[in-house]
Amino acid sequence: MNRNRLLMIGFIALVMGAGVSFLVYHNLQGGREKAAPGEDVFVATDDLQVGTKIEDKDIKYAHFPSSVLPAGVFHRRDKLIGRGVIQPIFRGEWMLSSKLAGENAGYGLPSLIPPGMRAVSVRVNDTSSVSGFVLPGTRVDVLLTGEPQGSNQTQTTTVLENVAVLANGTRLERAAGGGEPVSASVITLLVSPDDAQKLTLASNQGRIQLALRNPLDTRQQDLMAARADLLYKGVPEPVRPAAPRPKVKPVAAPAPAVVPNAPFTIEIYKGTKLEKDSF
Q: How many CA atoms lie within 13 A of 225 on its CB side?
């Protein structure tokens, strides 16, 4: 009898303890939510590469405290669907307006072109594309080698400097390794409308070469064109024959005019004495 009573009292105490613990936990959670209210925002369900079109499967809601949310998050699904990714977005990362193309701007390569700029593709090979190291996001100089009109010497000149690379073939971003070369026959560059004309003309005037540069080096250099004859030291320049001078016919001096009956004077010295006789 005493044993059953003790078991009953222990059971009741256990139930009361559990109830008190639940109430305390609930109150603590309620106080925490009131202290830091949260919001439901969209995050990426998987890694999203540059040029990806946002679909419904690519996003989901997640709850975060309002104090930690950056500017540009999205609360509405219709503001995301169909937008293009212009910067890599990783799984679980907030969907931010700064990493997406504008509304109705499309996706893929067109979404990467800022207003007022143009994307122009040039044909290259392993040599002219720096052995495949010209990757999206790198910067290059464009060199042209050819023979200018009116010259019989091959020359190389820098047509454009510090140009951004948009795509390597059909790739819009670097590989996961980041530094491995990717060979492609076409490189797409981001240029202004004026530079787009120069680049198109240069690609039809001679051979295009891309010079890879450090993205931190933004200096512009005024370079003279390199000529073939300046590459060889110690070779004298060819001597061109002087142009023949035109022959000038000698012209006889006119005879002095003779005035009839003009008087003339003769001077005669006698010792130190001068005498003049006029006729």
A: 15
139/193 Cα distance (integer angstroms): 18
Residue 8's φ and ψ, nearest 5 degrees, are -65, -45
- Do 29 and 75 meet the contact criterion of CB atoms below 8 Å apart? no
Distance in angstroms (rounded) separating the CA atoms of residues 55 and 52: 9
164-200 pLDDT tens trace? 998 888 777 665 555 667 777 889 999 999 999 999 9
Q: Which two tokens stand for residue 26?
A: 């609930």
Q: What is the chain's Cα-based Rg?
A: 45
Phi, psi angle pair for 58, to nearest 5°: -85, -10
Q: Which two tokens stand for residue 129?
A: 């594309």
- Digit-coded pLDDT (tens) for 208-255: 899 999 888 888 887 778 777 777 766 566 556 666 777 666 666 666
CATH number of the domain located at residue range(s) 38-110 in this protein: 3.90.1210.10
Burial level of 199, CB count in 10 A (0-12/13-18/19+)?
Answer: buried
Question: Which residue shows structure tokens 């593709």?
Answer: 121
What is the identity of the amino acid at 169?
Answer: G
Burial 256-270 (b: 16+ CB within 10 A, else e): eeeeeeeeeeeeeee
* Whole-number Å distance between alpha carbons of 199 and 190: 11
Q: Provide the residue ranges of all domains of the chain, joining segments of one domain with +.
A: 38-110, 114-230
Residue 126 token pair: 């392993």
